[in-house]
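Annex B. Sample input.
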Amino acid sequence: MRLPLGRATSSSCREAFRVGPRPVRWGPASLRGMSYRRRRMRFLGLLIVALSLVPALASAQVAALDEAVAAYEAGNIEVATTLFRAAEQSSRARPADLQRIHRYLGLIHTIIGEAEAAERSFAIALALDPAAEAPAELAPEQRARFEEIRAASHRLEVNVETVGVASNERDSTLRLTVPNAPPGVVAQFRASAAPSSGGQPWTATIDAAEAGELSIPAMAWRSAEQLDVTVEALNEHGGVLRSAETRLSHQRGAAPEAALVGDGAARSDEGGSVVEETWFWVVIGLIVAGGAAAGVGVALTVGPESYVLEAPTIQR
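Annex B, continued. Sample output.
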């Protein structure tokens, strides 16, 4: 049977004469009617693609740094400065990347005569790696200054201290400090907490300019006995300067502070409970003794029979 040209045919005919592969739809509508096995395979495929991008992003960061170093070695200081600044502002920067970036930024500042900026960059580089050698490009007096900065610098470390008692029944508080960091370098703390038995981690970010105390909710424990916590010190662009790991263990019998104060027990002005005072029990004893004596008196004077004494008769 011939089909007239230029006229619309039925949907079955159009599908029969379709040329090429059918388009793949990735939207939510494409999941309707799909079997569980196919949905799972599609999800695993997307997960594998996402994980494969992680090394690519890391290698891209390294490639950007290599390009900046090549521009510096070629004497193109302006281009090198732009590339190093861009690499510094990347949230994918790791401690080794930032150490390398600030080493070269210190050299660039030295070349263009910005001594204060150069010393700051060298201080950050030495805080990340105190054993780094002085750049060969530095003049003798500049090398001496570099060694002075090294002597005054300390390795950048993140200190994690538990405030109070760690418990999976209430919020746990961590005090985060970086005592040896150059001023203004650490901008934020990022924490990730997950049960030691595994599970979805809980994450949070706080401003380092605040008190530096991070509250981990009880839900992060997922009723586990131990909680693995990773804390990262970040610069203003989200790059990781240093990280630290710790493990919190649930302490059994650790009641919340509110239960220790508001449980109905009376307290003296000094903050201790009056039930612990000796005078309290003396007063209670006197009250009990007085009540007992009153009870005995009532029992002797009140009974089932009453006795009335008549007026005495005098016999002669």
